[in-house]
Amino acid sequence: xxxxxxxxxxxxxxxxxxxxxxxxxxxxxxxxxxxxxxxxxxxxxxxxxxxxxxxxxxxxxxxxxxxxxxxxxxxxxxxxxxxxxxxxxxxxxxxxxxxxxxxxxxxxxxxxxxxxxxxxxxxxxxxxxxxxxxxxxxxxxxxxxxxxxxxxxxxxxxxxxxxxxxxxxxxxxxxxxxxxxxxxxxxxxxxxxxxxxxxxxxxxx
Length: 205
Description:
mainly alpha
């Protein structure tokens, strides 16, 4: 298989992992509307980085890492679920700064990136999704060079999705006034808390 074919398969894997709507998607949409496209993209890139790390575990065949993650899945689910609830409540209670406000830079963007990286990384079961998709596409390989090409494709595909999502949502940003953004915060907060409660309800020892 050529490097281009491997990269395109990785791209497809990254897109298929990132595209389903979940708490990260809700966060990305809300932050794009409230803080701007850059904040939304930073949030998505945090998730893309975690996807890349999980892709490395699956693509390079590192069972000792995946087994260690899965052995501690109770704590990962607990921490991830509680963090989702925290972010949801924080979003629910936050008040919009105004549609013309400049998106936060520096610490704000780093916080947006780190929060989604943490949320995605605390879901080690995602590695099962990567392993299943790798196998389904016939993308599994024992060649490290080929695996690296796949992982690069995974990150690119995931990042591309978040770029498209944040860019698309930003087109509607000017249509939201402070009152509309307040409702966006409320709805997003409730949805994110719901994802957190769902994660906590599925905890297994």
